[in-house]
Amino acid sequence: MKRKLLLAGGGGVILLLLSIVVSLSIGSAHLPIPQIVAILGKHVPWIGSHIEVTWPKSSEQIMNQVRLPRVLLGVLVGAGLSLAGAAFQGVLRNPLADPYSLGVSSGASVGAAFIIYFGLQAAWLGQWSIPVAAFGTGLITLFLVVRLAQMDGKLKMETLILSGVVMQAFLGAIVSFLISMSKQVINEIVFWLMGSLAMHGWAYVGIILPYVIVGLIILLSYARSLNLLALGERQAAHLGVHVERTKVIVLVTATLITAAAVSVAGVIGFVGLIVPHLVRLVVGPDYRLIVPLSALGGGIYVLWADTVARTLLSPTEIPLGVVTAFLGAPFFAYLLYKEKRKVRGA
C-alpha cells in the first residue's frame, strides 16, 4: 500500500505542479513558463535572493494578483469536492453518490441567491456576504436532512438519500422562484449557479483552505473505517467500527467541505462523482489511497476545466459548471449503464 501511495501520490504531485505552471502561462497575456518559474522561485525563502529580476513588473502583477489566486482556488475547490465525493461514496457504499446527494449545494444556492436578489452584498459583509450566506444555509440543510433521515436514533442510508432528494427539490424551487422574480440581477444569480472562479482573489483562497486541510486530515483518519464499512454495517460493527458515529462524522465533514467550496465558487457538478471513481479504478478500493489521491486528482481536474473555461472562447468566459457538466454527464450515464448491467447480471 505504501509503495502504491508513494508512486501514485508522487506522480500526482508532479502532474499537479506541472499543471499549475502551464495554467499560469495560458491567458490573454502569454507568460513564458521559465518566467513563471522564476517569479514563483523569487518568493521561496533562501532561493529567491539568488534569482535576478529580468521580467517586467506587469507580468508579476498579472500572475500574483490575477492568475495565481484563481489557479490555487481551482485546485482547492476541486480537491474539496473530490474529497467530499469520496466520503459520500464510502459512507453510502454507492459509486454514483456525490457531494450533491444530500441537497447541500441547493441549500447553499438559496443563501447566495437570497443575498444577490436583495442586493445585500455591499450592505452586509461585502465580498464575504455570498460565501457566509451560502455556507450557513448549506449547514442548515445538512441539519434538516439528518433530522429527517433519523429513525429510532439511527441514520438510515436509504432514508438519508430520499431526504436529500426532497430537500434538493424544495430548495431548488426556491432558487427558481427568486430567479423568476428577479430582473436586474437575474444574470448574476444564474452565473453563480453555473459556477465560476472569475474575479476571486486571495480572500476566497483563505476561506476554503482550512476546510480542505482539516477535512483531509479527518477523512484520512477514518479511511480504515470506510474500508470496513464496505463489507457492510453489521460486519464493520463486529470489527470494532462505531458505525453511527463514523457515518455522522464523515457526512458532516464532507458536507462542510462541500458548503465551503460551493460558497466561494458556486455550483460545480460532477467533480465529486468522476474523480473518486477514476481513482478507485486505478488504485483499487482502499480508502487510505482513494482519499489523498482524490484530493490531488480533483485539484488537477478543476484546474484544467477552469483553464478551458477561461480560454476556449476568450474573451468570453464559459461558466466552470458548464465545462464540468459537459465532461461529467456522459461519464455519469456510462456509470449508470454499467450499474444496470451489473444488476441484470446478478
TrEMBL record:
Protein name (record): Iron ABC transporter permease
Bilayer topology term: Multi-pass membrane protein
Pfam families with a match to the protein in the record: FecCD (PF01032)
Stored CDD domains: TM_ABC_iron-siderophores_like
Keywords carried by this UniProt record: Cell membrane, Membrane, Transmembrane, Transmembrane helix, Transport
Similarity-based family: Belongs to the binding-protein-dependent transport system permease family. FecCD subfamily.
Principal subcellular localisation of the protein: membrane
Protein origin, superkingdom: Bacteria
GO CC annotation terms, alphabetical: plasma membrane
GO terms for MF: transmembrane transporter activity
